[in-house]
TrEMBL record:
This is Rieske domain-containing protein. Residues 5-102 form the Rieske domain. PANTHER family: FERREDOXIN-RELATED, RIESKE DOMAIN-CONTAINING PROTEIN. Keywords: 2Fe-2S, Iron, Iron-sulfur, Metal-binding. Gene3D superfamilies: Rieske [2Fe-2S] iron-sulphur domain (2.102.10.10). Its cofactor is [2Fe-2S] cluster. It comes from the Bacteria. One of its GO terms (molecular function) is metal ion binding. The keyword Nucleus does not apply.
Length: 120
């Protein structure tokens, strides 16, 4: 599927061990930074489609879902622990002139890629 890089955020605005959510060409994108490295993953948990932002956490190479606590590796999207949820979709990410750029598909995402807001 063709994809294009989009300029998303200044690198200095994503502190180490933090995450931030964006919508890029309609795609929900999670940008996480740990030990200086940037990662871009889909901002939709594969368990019950929760968004990782704003309450998710970045620790020890993984992002934790705020809804039920599933953890996914930043470098390959794999689910850690016994839960066995599907891996997170990852996007290519690069830093250019101090900006974080993320490559997302040129096609709009389907509903299966969009997060939902849990009922409270
Ligand atoms: S929705 Fe993420 S762990 Fe359940």
């Amino acid at each position: 599927m063709p994809e294009t890089y989009h300029r998303v955020v200044l690198a200095q605005d994503v502190p180490d061990r933090s995450l931030a959510g964006f919508v890029v060409n309609g795609w929900p994108v999670l940008i996480a930074r740990e030990e200086g490295a940037f990662h871009a993953l889909i901002n939709r948990c594969t368990h019950q489609a929760a968004s990782f932002t704003p309450d998710g956490r970045v620790r020890r190479g993984a992002v934790m879902c705020p809804l039920h606590g599933a953890r996914f590796k930043l470098d390959n999207g794999e689910c850690l622990g016994g839960a066995g949820y599907a891996p997170l979709l990852r996007f290519s990410v690069r830093e250019v002139d101090g900006w974080i750029e993320v490559a997302v598909p040129d096609e709009a995402p389907g509903a299966e890629h969009l997060p939902v807001t849990p009922l409270s």
